[in-house]
Specification:
Elements lengths: L5 H4 L10 H4 L48 H5 L3 H64 L1
């Protein structure tokens, strides 16, 4: 495949991008400097000692893990308090979902009835407006 002439497509030379450091270089004396000012190190005595407490045994207080195989049935059993809490939580969720469902049904019924009602109001208002315009037209015709 023949190579295409890119210079013909882009006659101007691409601008060379300068480095990020050059782009964000300070341009005035009030510009940001990349280094932090030194912190004064006076009045830093918090009463700490370097080696206040060194534990004698790094594993003190930790029990050695048991390597015995635990019966799988023991892990699958749920404590009775946890079981009752789960049932109570499920009951709460069911009640909330039921109340949400009834609210949604009521709102849907309201919206479904609102559209025909608003159309009926629009039709009646249009008829009343038409009648009022006719009466006004008659009144202006009789006066002229």
């Amino acid at each position: 495949m023949a190579s295409s002439n890119h210079d013909a497509w882009f006659p101007e030379q691409p601008t060379r991008l300068c480095s990020l450091d050059a782009m964000i270089a300070p341009r005035s004396s009030h510009a940001f400097t990349p280094s932090l000012p030194p912190l004064p190190e006076h009045d830093w005595d918090f009463g700490w000692e370097e080696n206040m407490f060194i534990p004698q045994d790094p594993y003190a207080g930790f029990e050695e893990a048991s390597t015995t195989v635990v019966d799988a049935a023991a892990n699958d059993s749920i404590p009775p308090q946890l079981s009752s809490d789960i049932l109570e939580l499920q009951d709460m969720f069911r009640k909330r979902l039921d109340s949400m469902e009834t609210r949604i049904v009521v709102a849907q019924r309201y919206v479904n009835n609102l559209v025909p009602w608003s159309m009926e109001v629009h039709e009646k208002y249009s008829k009343l407006l038409e009648m009022a315009e006719k009466q006004e037209k008659r009144a202006t015709d009789t006066n002229t």
